[in-house]
């Protein structure tokens, strides 16, 4: 089972690609939600007041893929899709690539635009550190305080990540494990006396 995916570690450095007096600024961001994407776009719009087009593409998710390509006023499929094509060719997800264009007075034609947006997106991704992450599954473990030791022993033995915990009379711990180990971990906790486990979305 494949339970890893590739993404970028952090925001790329700004790159600049020039074509016939037009300037194309490229950026890549690691993202996990549409809210983050909107925030990055808003801040780029504030940063580049005089720019005509903010073209972008993003991809989110590992099992269920969600993506969008936006031409932002450029001819149809001349900007967003060439940018998205680069996200695909780098084999990454949870990423947003934005190319900001300042028009230089000379029209590039659709072919020229496709080439410029593709190149700027490629340069932005080449500037980025690509990392591999595991696809994790989260479980909520619920138990009485008296059963704390046996629960913690499994967490320690199996090297599980604790995401959050509430320790009172009745305790709840949210743990994360790699997808390929999820079934085994679920079985271990299911078989512990007086311990409940359920998958967290």
Automatic annotation (TrEMBL):
Top-level taxon: Bacteria
Domain (Impact N-terminal) ranges: 20-125
GO terms for biological process, alphabetical: regulation of translational initiation
Gene3D superfamilies, alphabetized: Impact, N-terminal domain (3.30.230.30)
Pfam families: Impact_N
Annotated GO CC locations: cytoplasm
SUPFAM superfamilies with a match to the protein in the record: Ribosomal protein S5 domain 2-like
Family affiliation: Belongs to the IMPACT family.
Protein name: Putative YigZ family protein
Native source species: Flavobacterium dankookense
